[in-house]
Amino acid sequence: MPKSSARRVLFVASECFPLLKTGGLADVAGALPLELAKSGLDVRMLLPAFPAVKAGAKRPKKLAEIKDLFGGPAALYSATAATGLKLFMLDAPHLYDIEGNPYLDSKGKDRADNHIRYAALSFAAAELAMGRHTDWEADTVHAHDWQAGLTAAYIALEDGPRPKTVFTIHNLAFQGLFDKKHLASLKLPRSLFHQNGIEYWDQIGFLKAGIVYSDHVTTVSPSYAAEIATEDKGMGLGGLLASLGPKLSGIVNGIDTDVWNPETDPTLPASYSRQKAAGKAKCKQALQAEMGLKQDAKTPLFCVISRMTDQKGLDLLLEAVPHIVGNGAQLAVLGSGDKDLEAGFMKAAKDHPGMVSTTIGYDEAMSHRIQAGADVIFVPSRFEPCGLTQLCAMRYGTLPLVARVGGLADTVIDANLAALQAGTGTGFMFSPVTQDALRAAFDRALKAYGNKAAWRKLVRGAMGYDVSWQAPAAAYAAVYDALTKD
């Protein structure tokens, strides 16, 4: 593979849309490199060759064989995703030949060998970045979340010139903690296992390794960066993150505005745009029919698309269902997670037929139809690194009702009285994250919905808000530039 004259950036992630997706990480991994490539960077994505990744990859070509990668043979391939994203695939059947969720087993428990699976990804990333398996050598390595957290640690062990390293925390709550007895099998010297290294409460901390050994650490919104650098919200790493100073920054996420485009979205029953909004009403009518809700264009339709966890505030939303329905609004629910919450929302649908509909699981096409058909989307998270559903919602003219935390605070303009008068509101915020505050925000949204002229103005404002990757990608490119100039 010939060397490129452009600055070379290696992305390392465990999932990537449209090949494999369990959450927002995949959306970022699938879209950000494509936007960066538009500015002339040579960006490649290293992914584990899970069956779904191999099935979706185009034109695979074997680049190298690895005799023993943490217990078995492996091979490195180049390939291309359907989106045009350039890939490196790490094919190691003993690690990645698994169907379904790449982190959890069929019982919803962490896979017992995750430490080997993702350490191998990081180890191979370091080797690849150093030019060992191809003649493509990275100037910068950008690793994502705990699954790629050891990448910078392995690179730090290398002698001589090394690529600069960037590590992005997508959610501090998931830290990748494993027993220290695995140090040797993961090719990690004991010299790294200390308080200022990869050790976290006598365990190996994959996410901590990324923080400690990377040249720069980012997270997915400025407000979340400030929140996690505190004892209260740092989840045991607040002091470490605060000590980084300017080496820690927050860059808000974007979304792929080609994938999320109501004018061209093939999953929608009708297309529409900011200028021609009539199709949104047809999407609402179709969604009410699809989800078994009462057919009424005038009834405000609220929705939620989320993992069902306390972090996402879904317990607060479940408690608010009687208030929502009692005020004449409908609720469409799509998600899965905590079994008690799943059962609670299923019961709510049974107790309020025609007004509440619950679908357990996740369906990408359905998520598009819900975003298009609803009037308001709930995102009542107790903490939220960035959030993507509110960005998709604004793109589709569905106003977000969000907690004032993390990236939600950075991406939604509260439609308070001043914002309404200025014509700048794009949604509704509440704080603190309590039942009373959530209901008050719902009441405000309902009142605004009753003023059709004001509502149309809010919808147009939300649809005109820039949720693309253009500005975030420029911010990441600036981080790479600063590092390589040091």
Briefly summarize what is shown.
The chain has 486 residues and is of the alpha/beta class. The chain is 37% helix and 19% strand.
Backbone structural class? alpha/beta
Number of domains: 2
Sheet having the most strands = 9 strands, mixed
Shape: globular
Specify the CATH homologous superfamily of the largest domain: Glycogen Phosphorylase B
- What's the CATH architecture of the largest domain? 3-Layer(aba) Sandwich
Question: Quick one: CATH class of the largest domain?
Answer: Alpha Beta
Tell me roughly what share of residues is in helical segments.
25-40%
Looking across the biggest beta sheet, what order are the strands in? 3-4-5-2-1-6-7-11-12
Our measurement of the CA-to-CA distance between the termini, rounded to an integer number of angstroms, reads 28 Å
Total beta strand runs: 18
Beta strand %: 15-25%
Q: Look at the structure and give the mean pLDDT.
A: 96
CATH topology of the largest domain: Rossmann fold
What is the count of DSSP helices, taking H or I runs of 4+ residues?
Answer: 18
Report the uncertain regions.
none
C-alpha-based Rg, rounded: 23 Å
Pfam families: Glyco_transf_5, Glycos_transf_1
Catalytic activity: [(1->4)-alpha-D-glucosyl](n) + ADP-alpha-D-glucose = [(1->4)-alpha-D-glucosyl](n+1) + ADP + H(+)
Pathway: Glycan biosynthesis; glycogen biosynthesis
Keywords: Glycogen biosynthesis, Glycosyltransferase, Transferase
